[in-house]
Amino acid sequence: MQATRRSFFKTAMSLGVASSAYPLLTACSAEGEAATGAAKTMDLQADPNGLLDLPPGFTYTQLSVAGEVMDDGLHVPTSHDGMTTFPIEGDADRCLLIRNHEMSADDQDEGPFAGMTSVSDDIRDKAYDIDANGLPLPAGTTTLVFNMKTQQIEKSWMSLVGTIRNCSGGITPWGSWLTCEETLQKADDNISKDHGYVFEVPSSARGLVKAEPLKAMGRFNHEATATDPRTGIVYQTEDAHDSLIYRFLPEAKGELHKGGRLQVLALKDRPRADTRNWYNPGTYRMGERWAVEWLDIDGIDAPDNDLRLRGHAKGAALFARGEGMCLAVEKTGNAIYFACTSGGEAECGQIWKYTPGDFEGTSDEASAPGMLTLVVESTNASEMEMCDNIVASPWGDLVVCEDGPDDEFVRGVTPEGRIYTIARNAHPDQAEFAGACFAPDGETLFVNTQGPHATYAIRGPWAKIARA
Q1: Which residues sit opposite 139 in a β-bridge?
Q2: What backbone phi and psi angles, to 5 degrees, belong to 254?
Q3: Which of 15, 190, 289, 340 has its Cα between 20 and 30 A from that of 415?
């Protein structure tokens, strides 16, 4: 049974968050059940403009292309990446998009300060880091006001500056965006601070926020987060070939700046498990479930980039390039889905599901541990190639952005593990998709491409996609 719009909005609103953040996956199969093979897919129609190929009846609007001048006078940076939406209280026609930009310290010519030799004291004071020429580092986040009726951007500005390689992140139940630095770059002749942290951007901010790293959440190649509204626990992925999955237990729910405890995921009775299926194919099969335990880890600032190595030595499980992560509300409770870009025997990608236990994060959690399930393991590139950003959809499936060497697609994945196609990047650059998320009304799907560097708003008969 597919999620109805009524149940979708009721569930999301009861959590007090943006409706696009925590959709209801009502079509979920029973634990242990899985299916393989591609689902029926509507044929894509070639785009005469050479940008996006979409199914019949679907249209797109290209938005906020890199280099455009925003309302704050700064340029739209390149490398659009992770993204989310928030409703605007009292305004049913508009929503906010907060978007990452995955830029390096030496990308100033393509950043918000392109052509500038200095910035205002306010920008300098709010930036996390400044380069040797006195300019804030070019990555960070942009915030855009989107009109859902006209499908146009009405206002845009930089909301975080001075960071680098802001890749993905995640929404929080208290109305903010966690933006993650996918880097371990240390201070050098050009930059003054170490990087590799999570930063928080409140959706209520209508300008630049002061960039303050949440150091207690660890320093590693951060990719994405998912926050469980029931517990306030933040789950995190790491982009490395031998990555771990992390859990942050905050001292105060909803107040991450007050600190907390970092832990790593291990499989109960399988210390140092290798879930990648590279060297022992078939060890971890779709639909099987494994009990989880969480291990404390110290030295979380990791100046030697050894956090994952020490975590694995303690017993943590290995994953193949943990990237996209999202929370979905299911009939049986909340679930965390995450993508492992190069996982599986074919190295084409895996999607995992973590179901928190009834006593998650408490001293009693061993009596009802969280469970880990392999939902998808792609067997070839034509089925799904290198899954990256993911989001739960209003109709009960996952929407997945690809980041592979061949054609780039946006895929759908049913709760039973079947894969189908939603869009193709038709631009000659064939760059990755990123940042998939839905408008609060559930009618518009936003995605980014990193060639061209732009955001797209896609609309169409989603009910047909759901029945494909």
Answers
A1: 163
A2: 85, 0
A3: 15
Q: Provide the strand spans (E) within 151-287.
A: 152-163, 166-171, 176-181, 198-202, 222-227, 234-238, 246-250, 260-267
Give 406's pLDDT tier (boundaries 50, 70, 90): confident
CB neighbours (10 Å) of residue 316? Answer: 27
The number of CA neighbours under 13 Å toward the Cβ of 196 is 21
The beta strands (E) that lie in 172-308 are given as 176-181, 198-202, 222-227, 234-238, 246-250, 260-267, 289-296
Q: Please give the structure tokens belonging to residue 400.
A: 């997945």
Using the 8-state DSSP alphabet, how is residue 322 labeled? E
**Which residues does 90 contact at the CB level (< 8 Å), separation at least 6?**
none
- pLDDT tens digits, 442-465: 999 999 999 899 999 999 999 888
Question: What is the predicted pLDDT for the residue at 404?
Answer: 86
**300-309 core/surface letters (b: 16 or more CB in 10 A; e: else):** bebeeeebbe
In the chain, the amino acid numbered 79 is: S
Render pLDDT for 61-72 as a digit per residue (tens, 0 to 9). 999 999 999 999
**DSSP 8-state assignment for residue 344:** S
